[in-house]
């Protein structure tokens, strides 16, 4: 096994119509929501450090703590040096409906809702356009053509540059792509979440659509840092994620132990192996790392220094075979909104 010490920063295309981006994007969700408390100053410092390291894509959702995450990114962009601010590309999800208690109540992909969501996001981010705009989940009551058509109008008006998709299946991808150019599909993809491989990835590749992969560390589960005794705050996604429950958790952490042996042999961390594996899946895939501290960011960026040869990949596959995880990647009610397992 060999470790490459040259960082591979070559930009990757977001599909045939999207921008070329730094090979890792920064997912900012955990800086506001779903993984317990985050430190605001450290979050902003992490965004600045990411831009300084060359990261271009900053991913968010307008529903991450009801606008909090967009305002955080807006503040980070305003306080960044001009050159760094200009290199940043915003990737924004919309459509999820919340109430003041934070409860989730479905999705809204109607054209008038799309325009409304976009108007608020532009304001919160403090930008004159959003680089990639996408509905977080398909609204079952609104044909995807109408939602994508509304974003395409925002593209014509200059408020959005590119249209993305999130967690939709093969048929929806085809219908969306027949409506307007699609830059990338956002989808959970990791060593233990490989549902995208069977039907979805062949379609994105056929249509020249890129993939922004999230949950590459399975929300910290396969980062090498998660321990069974970790106390999760109320509202932490992991407190009700099937993979973090009871026997499933120990089963999944045993997979991490198998991965750790490979990481140790290569002199890298478990998180770096997991991120490098997603990077190795193809130039059309851009992992979004959910680092919310500079320390975690540095570790994530180190994955760009890791090269995996055929024997490494075989060893990883043996340690963590596809479908090895115990438990679905979302609770049942949320699985129902996904285009693939
Ligand atoms: N389209 C969608 O449906 C969807 C869904 C979810 C997320 N996303 C996007 O994808 C982004 C990434 O997703 P994610 O946050 O679930 O991904 P992730 O990278 O799998 O998980 C992030 C969590 O892993 C832990 N971690 C441990 N070591 C790490 C390291 N070296 N680097 C980064 N994180 C490390 C962190 O938890 P601790 O800080 O607690 O240690 C962090 O909160 C999100 O920020 C969001 O923008 C999209």
TrEMBL record:
Boundaries of every NADP-dependent oxidoreductase domain copy: 23-319
Record bears the keyword NADP: no
Highest taxon of the lineage: Bacteria
The keyword Flavoprotein appears for this protein: no
Record keywords: Oxidoreductase
Pfam families: Aldo_ket_red
SUPFAM superfamilies assigned to the protein according to its UniProt record, in alphabetical order: NAD(P)-linked oxidoreductase
InterPro entries (UniProt xref): Aldo-Keto_reductase, NAD(P)_OxRdtase_dom_sf, NADP_OxRdtase_dom
Cross-referenced PANTHER family: AFLATOXIN B1 ALDEHYDE REDUCTASE (PTHR43625), ALDO-KETO REDUCTASE YAKC [NADP(+)] (PTHR43625:SF40)
Protein name: Aldo/keto reductase
Organism whose genome encodes this protein: Streptomyces fuscus
Taxonomic classification: Bacteria, Bacillati, Actinomycetota, Actinomycetes, Kitasatosporales
């Amino acid at each position: 096994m060999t470790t490459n010490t040259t960082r591979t920063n070559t930009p990757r295309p977001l599909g045939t119509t999207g921008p070329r981006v730094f090979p890792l994007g920064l997912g900012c969700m955990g800086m506001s929501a779903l993984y317990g408390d985050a430190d605001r100053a450290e979050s902003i410092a992490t965004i600045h450090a990411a831009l300084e390291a060359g990261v271009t894509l900053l991913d968010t959702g307008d529903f991450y703590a009801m606008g909090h995450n967009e305002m955080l990114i807006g503040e980070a962009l305003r306080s960044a040096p001009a050159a760094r601010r200009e290199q940043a590309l915003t990737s924004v999800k919309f459509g999820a409906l919340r109430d003041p208690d934070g409860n989730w109540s479905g999705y809204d992909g109607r054209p008038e809702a799309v325009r409304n969501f976009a108007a608020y996001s532009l304001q919160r981010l403090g930008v004159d356009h959003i680089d990639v705009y996408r509905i977080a989940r398909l609204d079952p009551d609104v044909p995807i053509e109408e939602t994508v058509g509304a974003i395409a109008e925002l593209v014509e008006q200059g408020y959005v540059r590119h249209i993305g998709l999130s967690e939709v299946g093969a048929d929806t991808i085809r219908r969306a792509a027949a409506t307007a150019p699609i830059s990338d599909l956002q989808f959970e993809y990791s060593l233990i979440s490989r549902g995208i491989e069977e039907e979805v990835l062949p379609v994105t590749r056929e249509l020249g659509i890129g993939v922004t992969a999230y949950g590459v560390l399975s929300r910290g589960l396969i980062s090498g840092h998660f321990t069974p005794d970790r106390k999760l705050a109320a509202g932490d996604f992991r407190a009700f994620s099937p993979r973090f429950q009871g026997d499933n958790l120990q089963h999944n952490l045993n997979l991490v132990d198998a991965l750790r042996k490979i990481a140790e042999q290569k002199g890298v961390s478990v998180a770096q192996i997991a991120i490098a594996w997603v990077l190795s899946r193809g130039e059309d895939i851009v992992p979004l790392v959910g680092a919310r501290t500079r320390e975690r960011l540095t570790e994530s960026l180190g994955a760009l220094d890791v090269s995996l040869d055929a024997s490494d990949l075989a060893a990883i596959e043996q340690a963590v075979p596809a479908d090895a995880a115990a438990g679905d990647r979302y609770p049942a009610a949320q699985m129902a909104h996904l285009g693939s397992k």
